[in-house]
Amino acid sequence: MEAVSKNDVVTLSVTDISAEGQGVAKFGGLVVFAPFTAPGEVVEALILKVNKNHAFAKVLKIIKPSPERAEAGCPVYGKCGGCAFRHMSYDAELRAKLNIAASALKRIGGTDIKPCGIIPSTLISGYRNKAVLPFGGECGDVRLGFYAGRSHRLVPAEYCDLCPDIFASIQRKALGFLNARRIPAYGEETGKGILRHLYLRRGERSGEIMVCFVINGECLKDGDELAAMLAGEFPAVRGVLINTHTARGNANLGSGWSVLYGRDYIMDNICGLEMRISAGAFYQVNTSAAEELYGAAFDMADLEENETVLDLFCGAGAIGLFFAKKRPDINVTGVEIDGKAVADARENAKHNAVNNIRFVQADLDFSGNDISRLVSGFSAVIVDPPRKGLGNHTVSAIAAAHPRRIVYISCDPATLSRDISLLGKYGYTVIKSRAADLFPRTRHVEVIAVLKPADC
Q1: Chain centroid, CA 103 distance in Å
Q2: Which position among 83, 139, 411, 456 bears the catalytic label?
Q3: pTM beyond cutoff 0.90
Q4: Is 116 designated active site?
């Protein structure tokens, strides 16, 4: 068997796509991961790193391209750490994501229930209603862009194909203003500088825009003038905000908010609901695809008459409100840690005249919380946690409450599958699942899994 060493140039036959969106091949007894390749391709590649059971490679030349290979259409593809599938057709991307979801459910979750297909996104470009762009560069020549994969090295980018065009226009105007006043970017290593991120939100249906400057401080030089300029240039801007983030580290947002212009929220419409969305509240980044996701989750939940439903990690309340509006006979309780999101959710319920729902602020990750008491008494539980998943406390509390259905919506098949395995120890099994693509061209895929206890 041929040994593989760093800096070797080898010929690889790509057979699969990994959960990270990289092509998979075998050479010299090792699994070799080669980004930006597609199944069926033969490539010449440089070995970059060799571990005990696997290696990483960089493609030098495509010897035999896949019929699914496509033009990337992005000048920073392969440099920016965002997209993983721009070199493939969208149909090939969907197949890869469905396989990623199925593999995680079986390998990590221990279930043979495969997703019954994948819901495609109606948009594969311009679909993001939110962007968080890091600042970098020298004073007077500050840039915006994205971080390279697995690093905090800035890749300057004038636009992103996944975002609406107006984001790029706002980006250019803001940079021109900030550089003219020589406002410096924040440096993670030094902890000095001001500008950390440009944070943009847009209602896909309403068109309303929020512009937020995340800064290492409490005020921004000439901030009022900047806000007035942006509001004048872009009539869709409903608010210009400052987020104060003075802590060291790479978190996107700090805890302090102030308004330079307008209001601290935007309005949008999803699933026929008029939604108020504050700057920090969770809201799916692909609105039209989220509607398909929520519709599938509702159908899969198979709710009975007069059920009591718990919606955990509810954000501004979209899922719970959708369920409650569709079924006036049920009662829904939404739980969320973010106080502003809870306030939004309550306002959204009132504004949309949905009376069979209430919202509670609570920290589901805090072991000192009486989570068991919070989740008890519900016949169905919906969870849509962050990428890290539920965690042991929440899993055990949900299982102890013994709901007849758990509807788990996840943006990470691996953590979903880990939690499925944990729930399996309490007698819960997956009865059906489905994948959905809310993040076209990236490696991310959503999965809905419905679980029931053994005695149901």
Answers
A1: 20
A2: 411
A3: yes
A4: no
